[in-house]
Design goal:
2 copies of one chain form a homodimer. By secondary structure, chain A is α+β, with helices and mostly antiparallel strands. Chain A has one domain: 2,3-Dihydroxybiphenyl 1,2-Dioxygenase, domain 1, CATH 3.10.180. Helices cover about 25% and strands about 40% of the residues of chain A. Chain A is built from 4 helices and 8 strands. Chain A has an 8-stranded mixed beta sheet with strand order 2-3-4-1-5-8-7-6. In chain A, a hairpin with a 6-residue loop joins β3 and β4. At the A-B interface, β1, α1 and β5 of A face β1, α1 and β5 of B. Chains A, B: This is Methylmalonyl-CoA/ethylmalonyl-CoA epimerase. Chains A, B: InterPro entries: Glyas_Bleomycin-R_OHBP_Dase (IPR029068), MeMalonyl-CoA_epimerase (IPR017515), MMCE/EMCE_epimerase (IPR051785), VOC_core (IPR037523). Chains A, B: Keywords: Metal-binding. Chains A, B: It holds the Pfam family Glyoxalase_4.
Chain lengths: ~140, ~140
């Protein structure tokens, strides 16, 4: 079902400072910046590698406020890995397959993700404590 | 410098149960099992995807005891993502490049990692709260 590790979502207090850190330390470059009001984040995608089934990225996430999911995560856990996202060929089919195994979906229908993707989150309590995201990325899979 | 997201290290209480969860939910299969006494873990590598510059894996980590690094992580943070590992072409050169940017290395010399790799950990406080590992995987890069 999984095509790739699509991205690792990392929560940070200061998006620009953390972009600068990843650029300086690892030479990563930003390929997309977005504000996602629905999810309450300002975010940047940094390209790590291409692959036969889509690329891999680091997604840096700065909350738009303390009452957002990422804002609450930062308050309780501090900066660090927020979620892990896997590429899938079809988001609806993947959601159905996962739900059939008994894992709960946070999103009942696909949502808009970074770089024109369709995404859905799975409940971390059902995936060994890892907030897990499925990503269908039509533009990156072609 | 970075060739790929090599693996995501996930701390768990019960390795076999978590392997079974990832197999059932996502269809992932185990390609390697090891006990690393030096790091105090029993671990399994689950294959996610191949790539032009090496594959990507999920690494499940069960501590050998409560006084190990992963045992202490579980006690304070619970199950979840423990570290993120990036593939590099040359571990020594990558360590030098990273150290030159001011990021502290936990390992002053490369250590033995899963599947005959050479690895080094970077200090999470210098990488935005993420325990970060560099991995040179000669067998996987060829």
């Amino acid at each position: 079902m999984l095509l790739r590790i699509d991205h690792i979502g990392i929560a940070c207090h200061d998006l620009e400072a953390t972009i600068a850190l990843y650029q300086k330390t690892f030479g990563l470059t930003v390929v997309s910046r977005e504000v996602n009001e629905e999810q309450g984040v300002r975010e940047a995608m940094l390209h790590v590698a291409d692959g036969e089934t889509g690329g891999s990225y680091i997604q840096l996430l700065e909350p738009l406020g303390p009452d957002t999911p990422v804002g609450k995560f930062l308050a309780s856990r501090g900066e660090g890995v927020h979620h892990v996202a896997y590429g899938v060929a079809g988001i609806t089919e993947a959601m159905e397959e996962v739900a059939a195994t008994g894992v709960r979906l946070i999103d009942k229908a696909p949502r808009h993700g970074s770089m024109n993707t369709s995404i859905a989150f799975l409940h971390p309590k059902d995936v060994g404590g890892v907030l897990t995201e499925l990503v269908q990325a039509p533009e990156r899979d072609s």
